[in-house]
Specification:
3 domains; mainly alpha; two-stranded antiparallel sheet; two-stranded antiparallel ribbon; Dna Ligase, domain 1; elongated
Length: about 350
Amino acid sequence: MVKKRTFGILLLLLSVALLTLCLWTDKYIINKVVLTGTDSVSFKIPKKASFGEITRILRSKNFEVTDLEFKLTAQWLEKDKKIKYGKFTCHPERSPIRLKELINYLSEGRNITVNVTIPEGSRLVEIAGILRKNLDIDSSAFVERTYDQEMLERYKVPALSLEGYLYPETYNFNMEENIDLIIDRMYQTGRQKLHRLRAKIDNSVFSEHKILTLASIIQGEVMNYDEVSLISAVYHNRLKKGMLLQADPTVQYMFDRPKRLLKTDTSIDNPYNTYKYKGLPPGPINNPSVKAVEAALDPADAPYIYMVAKGDGTHNFNVELNDHINDKNRFDRHVRKEKK
């Protein structure tokens, strides 16, 4: 009888101890607050990361969690084999982040999507920089891929790169989007945008590649779209007359970043130097908008063969060289005055 009573008491004490342990574990480990703050916190978990690597990443972002707490809680919740890799954002500014919530979030793999805007007229290297900033994409790898022969053959691009073929647009990308998927989406968006112009492209005296090349030059010049067809007319007229295009954007393309062009720059021996070589350059110098492509296909009915910036985002257009020189001198005086 005494033995039964003793066993009963021990069983009761053990049950109380287990209950206490469970309550303590639930409160102080499973539902432990691991992050508070006033700002959102983003972090990246690499593929095949161990629990130790994950918790080190979390602690580097001010999460208060030990390796053991994270591992045991993940196992308790049966999520230890379901933790996803990728980029995640927690919002402690909305409510404190508890360990259970964190592990559930990481195991569901709700990766971040982000809107990424590629401005009209962006070069491949500029697109790569934007993607690096917004998606943590390896910019060098992105540029290399756009020059990859396999990619050029896949999209039937008759050039050394995909310059001119990746459409400038605002995209909603998954933070884990890979380079090939990004390229494909931008390329296919361009195809969709140009679909309504397909008949004009097919009936043009220029190949599609040359149309995109001309469109990119127009895009490089235009700041006010009211002028876009006039800018196109200037280049069409110069091509018809066998004149040098003398397009500053093509010379700019020879340099890593925009600069104030010098007279010596226009004498550089480079196939993109339209001050030295007649006709269109070998390929597009940026990725143009559909508006620029439309202008390349349908220039204004105007006789202009010269244009020069006014300094306010618009241009003066001329037929006579003397008028052009006068306008250029006026612009140069404006630039000198602005520098003072």
